[in-house]
């Protein structure tokens, strides 16, 4: 149970030696035995667990701080990683303990998203194209480097035995990167016409966000993003600690033809369950912070939309005595809607995932069973349970609910039904702004989140440093300096986790675009219905949003048609 080179009785004996190469019992030695005359070793691995003395056999320091047999097959049996759990723990632990490097990695999507928020206001088409093209190039580069690294790492002695899982999943991750690169290039090519029409919508959404009365949402989102990064760093440290705990267990092994129970140190099943529960809690809290951020953003946008501004003689807005919209948003969230946010944080991701895959088989159209298209009717009866699940549950987990919650104060499902009904009533009359921004916005979120994926790959490829008895880790300077060093390590198993963290951080700022389009659409629909039911009667609509809808509606929109009739009647 002592750690070679660290505990007091074996401080000078830094190497591990297996007296019996057919089991996992290790003794500490100061030098690797070379011949049978280098000593005898006694271990309790004889019949019935009795002590048994064995002479030394020829070994060499081939891998790490272990004295391995010169027989390559015996050495492979000793060093081979026989547990997927052990390899995963080691791969994730190597990343999670380097919290300084994780901080640098997560700051990349945060800063990049801030740059895109400003850039999309002035040149949305150019910045969208820049994001998609650079992401495609970086993913292709990562896939190429994965293959090159694979050739280098495969040449390291016994690397195949110590990293079997990583070598098995490397082709899948590489192909996923190549597929992602092709997807971004394809979307860039096919979305060029759509970007031209969405240009005006992005400008309007970003102008609404950067309005002086709404600008506080940018700072609030930035603060929540920093809070999210701090929580991720805390979660990584706690997870690394949970993955390091081992307990004494009884293992049944065969000794000299007889089976016996012997004590061993192994990963604790109890702490594995605790780690799974901790991962679930981390996911729930990060989702909770994400939806809190969306609620605050929607609340401030709705407050600004439905505020009639009083001006002084110089045309300046009078704000004396007005309550801070941020304070009201936070207080109303804490007093009335924490349950709704917690419920959505738990249910939104699985419901959206199911609905996304359903979209490949079932068209999102009402009354499929009455459709003239025979394939639609077949799909309706074939996927009837899923369609009913979508009708009563899945479709209500959209971002539009975060606009209805602050406006009406309903419970979550009631607010979702109201938002869905409002948008359905206005369909065909008032264009939904999310129709022009949703795909580009979603791909932009993924593109910015992938920066964490890419930088994790680059910054964790270099050799590790540190004494044998210490956890080997790096700092930010070493990680940056190792970018051009021949790799001796690959972080492939940790890349999906870091990608998820990057997506959460990127969404912390880029959700402003999606929430702006949702808020402006729903507020405008409510404005129209309150004023009389036609586009021309909207009372609170800003002039810029009015012109935006006029552009989207084209020459046949109700507003433009009424303006032409009015002009003819007055002779102007």
Q: How much of the residues is beta strand, in percent?
A: 5-15%
Q: What does the radius of gyration come to?
A: 31 Å
Shape summary: elongated
Order of helices and strands: EEEEEEHHHHHHHHEEHHHHHHHHHHH
Summarize the structure.
By secondary structure, the chain is of the alpha+beta class. 62% of the residues lie in helices and 8% in strands.
Question: Could you characterize the architecture of this molecule?
Answer:
The chain is an alpha+beta fold and 572 residues long. The protein is 62% helix and 8% strand. The protein contains 19 helices and eight strands. The strands form three sheets. It has a four-stranded mixed beta sheet, with helices on one face. It has a two-stranded antiparallel ribbon with strand order 3-4. Helix 2 crosses helix 8, helix 3 crosses helix 7 and helix 3 (99-122) packs antiparallel against helix 15.
Keywords:
four-stranded mixed β-sheet, 8% strand, elongated, 19 helices, 572 residues, 8 strands, alpha+beta, two-stranded antiparallel sheet
Question: In terms of topology, how is this protein built?
Answer:
Elements lengths: L14 E3 L9 E3 L10 E4 L8 E4 L3 E5 L2 E4 L2 H8 L4 H13 L2 H24 L1 H31 L4 H4 L1 H27 L1 H18 L6 H27 L3 E10 L2 E10 L1 H37 L19 H34 L15 H9 L1 H9 L8 H8 L3 H15 L7 H26 L16 H6 L13 H37 L11 H11 L4 H13 L2
Parallel strand pairs: 1-6
Antiparallel strand pairs: 1-2, 3-4, 5-6, 7-8
Helix pairs in contact: 2-8, 3-4, 3-7, 3-8, 3-15, 3-17, 4-6, 4-7, 4-15, 7-17, 7-18, 8-9, 8-17, 9-10, 9-13, 9-17, 13-14, 15-17
